[in-house]
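Quick one: structure for this chain?
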Amino acid sequence: MREDTRGCACCLLAAGGAATALLAWAPLARVSIDGGVGQWHRDLSVLYVDLPLVALGGALLPLLVWAAALRWLHRPWLAAVAAVAGLALGVWVLTGWWVPYERPEFVH
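Got it. Here's what it folds into:
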């Protein structure tokens, strides 16, 4: 595999991973941004804390899996499949684990 092709693959994996992670995370964060019913649950910290972390994790996870798989398997297409599978597993863990904080209704 040529160096310029490898660099393009890394950029595509990073951009696709970040976009996929953000698109999976955004519906979960919606209640923190708009506040829900009566805007009692508004918490904009998800925009300056969680959003960069989700984007960074989504960009780095497929890159790390791809680099490790390429080093061990020596097949670029198997490394790409492993990177996509790693991203899918990471998004599944993100959507199953991360839940935005919702303040109880009786506390003001």
